[in-house]
Amino acid sequence: MIKDQPIQQFLDELASKSATPGGGSAAAVMGAMGAALVGMVCHLTVGKKNYEAVEAEMAGVLARADALRAQSMDMIRADVEAFDRVMAAYALPRDTEDDKAARGRAIQEALKAATDVPLACARLCVDIIELSDIAAQKGNRNLISDAGVAVMAAHAALKSAALNVYVNAKGVKDEAFARDRVDRLEALLKEGEAKAIAVFETVKAHL
């Protein structure tokens, strides 16, 4: 599985002629890195002197960050599988009218799945941004810059996932489906971007 590969192998494959892994997988990794950095801040806050008052809360943030990191990594395979399904649908025969109809249906179903995967990734990214805020506000002050990097990684992942939602939704002929997914995405973008900017400014002010 891609998520079990050494990072150098993943980067080599990302840079190769192969269409997968691609931008969607990269977005998932960026989100996972953000969650991992939140986890680091939590690990170095829990049990530390002067942070007793937030220890229970930060332990909870750590558990959530670990779960989000695992979910983000699972998105790597989901992204590859969704893209491969789209490519397989486009490769279906179109010799007869029945073939063409079946191919068209397969393409549309595959595009819907390829829209939903990065949308789910975007949701995870907003959750990671929210945890980054807590890490920046209440975590170990010596690690506030790491909380800032966490939020920037999650924000980059959010914007990257958004591009994949847009490109796939554009090909979906079911207008209600496409509009619904884009609306959901744009709500996430609005929420995530405002929070990410605020966290960045909080971190910068304390450096």
TrEMBL record:
GO molecular function: hydrolase activity
Highest taxon listed in the record's lineage: Bacteria
SUPFAM superfamilies: Methenyltetrahydrofolate cyclohydrolase-like
InterPro entries: Cyclodeamin/CycHdrlase (IPR007044), Formintransfe-cycloase-like_sf (IPR036178), MthfCyhylase (IPR054893)
Annotated ranges, domain Cyclodeaminase/cyclohydrolase: 7-185
Keywords in alphabetical order: Hydrolase
Pfam families: FTCD_C (PF04961)
NCBIfam families, A to Z: MthfCyhylaseFchA
Protein name: Methenyltetrahydrofolate cyclohydrolase
